[in-house]
Amino acid sequence: MAKRAERPGDPIKLIGLLWRPAEAVSRSGLTPRRITEAAIAVADGEGIDALTIRRIAGDLGVSPMALYPYIAGRPELIELMLDAVAAEVYAAGPLPAQAGAWRERVERVAHANWACHMAHPWTVELPPGRPVPGPGVSGKYEAELAAFEGIGLGDMEMDQALVAVLGLVSSTARQVLSLRRIREESTLTDRQWWESVGPVLATAMSGASYPIAERVSTTVGEATGMASDPEGSLRFGLTTFLDGLARRVGAAG
Fold first, then answer.
1. CA distance linking residue 197 with residue 107, whole number of Å
2. 3-class SS letters over the chain
3. CA 236 to chain centre
4. Peptide bond preceding 8: is omega within 30 degrees of 0, i.e. cis?
């Protein structure tokens, strides 16, 4: 389990770190941005559990104590990382509000967040907390709300619709990334794994009857070669959500 119980650390210090970061560059070249980028590189490559102040200091060629004037501690550093990643989401492309019809805008929100999670798998490993929004998170929230602006939703509904889309994306990404790790650590493909487990499971389940589950799981397995199809589920869930939202607001996508 990821080391996240301490989130978000000292919120007062975090506000200053997010909104008024130290601009002075030390002799070692340290800045909050450089420290945050080094931390993101570690988390991207090795997972969030590999992130320690000592590790980041070592990568930057300084003592651990040299980092504290810039980032306060590990909990605050994680929040700085999340804010920096949030700022990246739309940095390379048009904002959701600029992507065309409202359905296209919402789909862009989903796709952009999916890409972010795939690039930074640790972002779905962190349990929810009480985060202090920084400029990256605030800008992302503003941009994504704009995808729902003017389609007939109230303010509360706009927030709820956005949270629903982001939740669908993050939960699917968590499943996909977990399966990816299992496959990377295993010497067997999914099909080979089921071929080894299947006969034993069939014996254990002898006499039990689950006709619908058996039919559906067989169909999924034959179509995908896997026990489940998370990315297909994401596409289906997003389409179904958008169809329902269109009916609710009486607007054509």
1. 38
2. CCCCCCCCCCHHHHHHHHHCCCCCCCCCCCCHHHHHHHHHHHHHHHCHHHCCHHHHHHHHCCCHHHCHHHHCCHHHHHHHHHHHHHHHCCCCCCCHHHCCCHHHHHHHHHHHHHHHHHHCHHHHCCCCCCCCCCHHHHHHHHHHHCCCCCCCCCHHHHHHHHHHHHHHHHHHHHHHHHHHHHHHHCCCCHHHHHHHHHHHHHHHCCCCCCHHHHHHHHHHHHHHCCCCCHHHHHHHHHHHHHHHHHHHHCCCC
3. 19
4. yes
d(CA 102, CA 146): 9
38, 56 Cβ separation under 8 angstroms = yes
Query: What is the sign, positive or negative, of the torsion defined by CA atoms of 59, 74, 22, 139?
Result: positive
Cα distance from N-terminal residue to C-terminal residue, the chain: 41
pLDDT tens digits along 99-154: 789 999 999 999 999 999 999 999 998 887 777 889 999 999 999 999 999 999 99
Residue pair 4/126 in contact by the 8 Å Cβ criterion: yes
Q: Which of 164, 139, 161 is nearest to 151 (CA)?
A: 161
Which residue has better confidence, 227 or 213?
Answer: 213
CB 21 within 8 A of CB 33: yes
User: φ and ψ at 153, to 5 degrees?
Assistant: -100, 145
* Other C-beta atoms lying within 10 Å of the C-beta of residue 86: 22
**158-203 confidence digits (pLDDT tens):** 999 999 999 999 999 999 998 888 878 888 777 787 788 878 888 8
- pTM here is 0.86
Greatest alpha-carbon pair distance for the chain in Å reads: 73
* Lookup: tokens for 203: 């014996």
